[in-house]
Amino acid sequence: MQAAKMGVLRDKLARGNLTSVAFLIVNEQDALSRAMYWQLKRRAAEGIPVYQQSPLQDDIWDTLQGDKDDFLVYDRCGYLTFHIGLPYSFLHLRYVEAAIQATYLGNICNCTLNSTQLTSSNVTTERSSEQNTTAIEPQNTNLHHHHHHHHHHHYHHHDYSQIRSTQNPAITQITSTTTEQEHTHHDSEH
Fold this sequence. Notes:
Number of strands: 7
Radius of gyration: 17 Å
């Protein structure tokens, strides 16, 4: 199962010094998937949260134009760098790993951030009162899609986190070093 293999990938990336990579499993919204939430959560690698959508909210997979076995890779600014679907998203293949490495090590978003201003912060999120559901508060709802050609000038918080326990959205606590800088994204083919 993909959920269990994500921990192996996370650990492999960490051994290669890619230490602030966050994983999140998004369970489908249908009734059968919701009924099997706890089984999925048990199979997921330790420290990788499983997000259960509420049946009353818009389906995340529809919003992201993806499917349940897709991997969406985002950069530090929250921009989509890779959308990997089946069969390429199977973790025994190297496509997901290569996409994460390219995003982590490369300048995929053409970010022109150059700053030495560092601040430390603790980030926490609140759990929803609904059972098995956590509210997602996206920091940046302006996702890049693959064929847009435009410039963005906006303020970003670059999070170079050393993750303590779990990742978004069910974060218990992240101690991070944050660089704040006005910078520009030059989109070519996102």
